[in-house]
Amino acid sequence: MKFTVAILALAGTLAYGALSTTNTVAAQGKSQWDGVYTEDQAKRGEPLYGQYCASCHGPDLAGGEMAPGLTGGEFTSNWNDLSLGDLYERIRISMPQSAPGSLSRQQNSDILAFILRKMNMPVGQAELSTSTDELKGIKFLAAKSRKLTDRFLVEARATARCSGPSASASCPASSNAAPSWRCPWK
Prior knowledge:
Helices cover about 50% and strands about 5% of the residues. By secondary structure, it is mainly alpha-helical. It has a domain at about 35-140: Cytochrome c-like domain (Cytochrome Bc1 Complex, Chain D, domain 2). The protein is globular, with a radius of gyration of 23 Å. Mean pLDDT is about 75; it is low at about 5-30, about 150-155, about 160-165 and about 170-185.
């Protein structure tokens, strides 16, 4: 009985967490994982990067003596959970180092699209905006988020197939279930 109550409490906690996460994900809106630039835009950004950025950040975007890399774990960690608007503004105001703020908004947007392509971010159907306010609505996320609601539903369905110690091998709890365990959804 205590075990069943514990399972029901855990299921309730998971459901609450999944619903709370759904609202958070919805509130966050888009991220760079949603394909926010076009291939043509990234192609336009490549020669601009070579001309204005590569001397400091390296031709492979790995960084140099005085400038950080623009790809990889350290970069994604530093920018995680900020917006593309924040990154765009950093580029627009302070780059290139030899002439900060000298590039047009379109050039900065094209360079950012090139950086996203080099990070293997998905290509989209619309070009990356040149509006900082619009770019503020796009989160930069280090890893592609997995919707907890989808995972919760899959796990709940799998658990619902379980029927205690005689559960099939596909039951996630069958290998470590207590002998008296019964699926609370049966």
